Amino acid sequence: MAPPCPVCQAPSNGFHFGVEVCSACSSFFRRAVFKNRKFRCYGEPVNSCEVISTGNALCKGCRLAKCLAVGMKKETVQQGRESYGKRELALVSLQRSSLNIRLEFPVPYFMMESVKNQYTHLESVRLVVHLNEGAIATPKRHTYKDTDKLMFREYDVVTRWVINSFPQLADFPSDQRTILLKHFYLQFFILESGFIACKKGRNDVWFLPSGDYIDCKNLASFYRDPTLTKVTTQPTPPENAAKVMKGTCTGCRRKVWNTMLKDNIDQFEFFALSALILFQTGLEGQSESCMETCKKIRSTVQRELLQYYAAKNTDTIRMGNVLSLLPSVLSSTYKMLDDMELMYIMNKKDNSFFNFFTGREYV
After folding, report:
1. pLDDT (tens digit, 9 = 90+) per residue, 10-69?
2. Is 1-83 assigned to CATH 3.30.50.10?
3. GO terms for molecular function, please (predicted)?
4. What is the pTM of this model?
5. The domain made up of 85-358 is a member of CATH 1.10.565.10
6. Which member of 106, 135, 284, 299 has the greatest number of CB atoms within 10 A?
């Protein structure tokens, strides 16, 4: 279990600016220092507010003071450093020059520029995360057990990327952040695979963020349990499982990846779609204030997308085609969840990502 954040007592998720803190406090500290914000405490008595993550708004003045008191370092924000470990820093340094290159977007897109920079960092972090898990340079064909482990690792990595890319999330109560992130993750998993397919110009396999893949033309290999001996049979033969659950690969390829390849979705469009998926409204358990903020952010994203097309002299009909991907991604996600549930029931494992992600228990 993760230790509590020394600032707000929420579960920490790694070292940020010299201290092991939670993602929300990390984002708050980065934004406050980068913008040189000066906060005033209005509590009684002054400068003695309790900084506890309970879902209520925290006093920003006392929160920043506590960040500094526990040892978070301003200079690491100014120099763009965080402590992810020596191996990761070595790999990140290989790509550091790319972080200083001016973005190739034709006009300033402030929200998307932040997402772009953080995505470059995400790719560097993935090199470390998957290397530490024994990944090799040659892409490997995954089994369902491989992908289950991958999704555990990726959920934490992608969550950190999202929070760093969209500082607005730090101001959401923790339960509202969780609702948005849970709704986002599997859709992003499908969308990003389509974006990788666009870069590689093929969609016969399911490209995974680790560099490995799922062989969609031989799904029986995906559903085979590599830990079983030849004399031990699986509860459900892999060939039968492939027939029952092939709909996920088929649906993603037909509804999402084919369209992305046909329209050659570029990086800016990929980021815009990701943001629109993240800040969805009308979700179960979503508060009115959360929905209002999401609506404002979605409007900003759509405005930046229009500006992007205008700068490229692109017909706005393309924007309609791009946005039409959103319901396709969502329906493919529902099918993926159904297949994950079937796989969980047939191969009941306490460490299944499906069990973690949905919180469902089966007796």
Report:
1. 888 777 777 888 888 888 888 888 888 888 888 888 888 888 877 667 888 999 999 999
2. yes
3. DNA-binding transcription factor activity; sequence-specific DNA binding; zinc ion binding
4. 0.67
5. yes
6. 135
Structure tokens at 204: 């016969």
- Rounded Cα distance, 20 and 4, in Å: 9
And the tokens for 3? Answer: 């230790």
Do the beta carbons of residue 315 and residue 328 sit within 8 Å? no
2-12: pLDDT as tens digits:
788 899 888 88
Residue 60, amino acid? K
As a residue count, the chain comes to 363
Structure tokens at 37: 């914000």
Domain boundaries, the chain: 1-83, 85-358
